[in-house]
Design brief:
This protein has 340 residues and is α+β, with helices and mostly antiparallel strands. It is built from 13 helices and six strands. Strand 5 and strand 6 form a beta hairpin.
Length: 340
């Protein structure tokens, strides 16, 4: 769901009139299907809050009729697959349209999604490295490093070291609702910078400078609750399928603040007399309660539909990534006007 949150934040406020009828969705037309759907929404509102957060309306394959009430925790495999296939027939276009519906629902209720602005100023990262044979990863050197670390407490060093400047006086801003591209030649410190912003640097490194989230330093703010660093090396269990891996990851992460957001959203809609889109409502409920696996089916549907295109692009880039990065970086630098 973290991917959904970033996508929602990056979008502008769409025209909500496309997804809601009038100022209040209670004022529906006299069509029979709309009346039946309104009756179902009225029945849902009479449920206790705890049950209402777990009950959604699942429409038929042809989207005709009011649909049926379902427990989002108990959706069967066929129901989840039918929902995903109906809503995301053309993965790229329908996914963008669906995300706009999600954003429209939140905006229509007057709820603002929290954002974070990351600033770093005069950020420097240094490391003490051994030179010569001591830098080789051998058992002897590992034992000497252990002894050296203990002797270092009293100011004694067994080997010759050299200070390596990984980052030196780097400053910048990562603004919310933006996509920031970080380019640079190999070994220029891109990974170190991202780790520093995510608060995941090795404690053995010397760090100076300032990193703030919305004006709060890392000693006042927990970046791990807001930022996530995705390593270049995937660590997965080889015996698990892709779906099992995604399910396992989703269960480990939990639902986070999505449940509280849904509670506040439904409270606002009830006060304003708004009936949300049934598909958006079902998706948000299914991905905001423990035990739901609709999120995995959504990721597989959207991702695998674009896998062929991604595979062609990545297979081209994979063999020449360092050269490509350097070429793009140099071209961008050449377009930036030099200061006199």
């Amino acid at each position: 769901m973290d991917m959904l949150s970033r996508s929602l934040q990056s979008m502008g406020s769409p025209d909500v009139s496309v997804y809601f009828s009038g100022g209040s969705s209670r004022n529906r037309s006299g069509a029979e299907s709309d009346d039946e759907e309104a009756l179902r929404w009225a029945a849902l509102e009479r449920l206790p809050s705890f049950e209402r957060l777990r009950t959604g309306i699942l429409r038929s394959e042809r989207r005709r009729g009011p649909g049926v009430e379902v427990d989002v925790r108990m959706l069967e495999l066929t129901q989840r697959q039918a929902f995903v296939e109906n809503v995301f027939k053309v993965a790229e276009e329908d996914n963008a349209r669906f995300l706009k519906k999600l954003r429209a629902r939140i905006d229509h209720a007057g709820i603002q999604i929290p954002t974070a602005e990351v600033r770093f100023r005069s950020l420097s990262v240094e490391a003490e490295c051994h030179v010569g044979d001591r830098m080789l990863p051998t058992l002897t050197n590992a034992a000497l490093d252990a002894v050296d670390s203990m002797l270092g407490l009293v100011g004694v060093s067994l080997g010759k070291t050299k200070t390596l400047h990984i980052l030196k006086n780097v400053s910048g801003v990562v603004r919310p609702s933006r996509m920031t591209l970080l380019l640079g030649p190999p070994s220029s410190g891109k990974t170190t910078l991202l780790l520093a912003l995510a608060g995941k640097l090795d404690p053995g490194l010397r760090v100076s400078g300032e990193v703030t989230y919305n004006g709060y330093g890392l000693d006042e703010f927990v970046p791990q609750k807001t930022a996530a660093y995705i390593s270049q090396n995937d660590v997965h269990a080889g015996e698990m399928t892709v779906k099992e891996t995604l399910d396992f990851s989703a269960r480990c992460q939990g639902v986070g603040q999505r449940y509280e957001l849904l509670q506040e959203l439904m409270k606002k809609e009830r006060q304003l007399g708004i009936y949300p889109d049934p598909e958006v409502d079902l998706f948000m409920k299914a991905t905001s309660v423990e035990g739901g696996t609709l999120q995995t089916d959504y990721i597989l549907r959207v991702s695998l539909k674009l896998s062929n295109w991604h595979q062609r692009v990545f297979s081209t880039v994979k063999g020449a990534t360092p050269k490509l990065e350097s070429s793009i970086s140099n071209k961008i630098k050449s377009t930036v006007p030099k200061k006199d």
